[in-house]
Amino acid sequence: MRRIFGTTSFHCRPAAKIPNNRDHVHNGPLAPCLCGRERPYWGGLLHRDSPALAGGGRIASVAEGRHSKRSIVKPFYPIPYPLNAIDRLATMLPYSCLPFYCNVCGRMSMAILAKKCLPHPETQLRESVICIRCGASNRNRQVAALICRSPFAKRQYASLARFAKCECVTVYNTEAARAIHNTFNTMKSGYVCSEFVDGQLESGTRSGGILHQDLMKTSFPDQSFDLVITSDVLEHVPNPWAAFGEIHRILKPEGRHVFTIPFYQDRASTETRARLNERAEIAHLKEPVYHNDPLRPEEALVFTIFSIDVLAKLETIGFKTVMYKLHNPLLGIYAQNGLVFESFKRV
Ligand SMILES: [Zn+2]
Question: How far is the CA of 124 from the centre of ligand 1 (A)?
Answer without folding.
Answer: 19
